Amino acid sequence: MIDERVLNMYKASNNFGAFLEMELEVLEEGEAKYVLEIKEKHLATPIAAHGGVVAGLIDGTLGVAALTISGQNGNVVSTVELQVNFLKPVVLGDKLTSIGKVISAGKRLLYVEAAVTNQKGVLVAKASGTFNAYPAEKAFKSLNIDV
């Protein structure tokens, strides 16, 4: 079962996701979705989004999918490895949907995959990542939050 307490602490402290204006939805245990509309602040050229925005969207998606598993044991996750394949351009006004799914979960390492589509259902990126699970106390200690 997903630990809502750990998930809520993540949501409250995720300034980067708020900056990008990503909208989170946990689909089920081990699966998460983020949605992001590409705005002018996301552009690297007059019409195309910066790859780092898409990579950030993906990293968040993969991480939350992993968090839904690791959080069950009072753990949070950090990215160990991230691989992104950019398949199509992402342009101003695109509404991206990134869905991540945990493929394998051990005690400390989780492997997650994601796909990103635009509003037309076109696959624009694929990714995978490895995440390290560690005690939530380490992440939230500086915020004076009891875990």
UniProtKB/TrEMBL annotation:
SUPFAM superfamilies: Thioesterase/thiol ester dehydrase-isomerase. PANTHER family: ACYL-COENZYME A THIOESTERASE 13, THIOESTERASE SUPERFAMILY MEMBER-RELATED. The keyword Hydrolase applies. It comes from Brumimicrobium glaciale. This is PaaI family thioesterase. It comes from the Bacteria. GO terms for molecular function: fatty acyl-CoA hydrolase activity. The keyword Manganese does not apply.
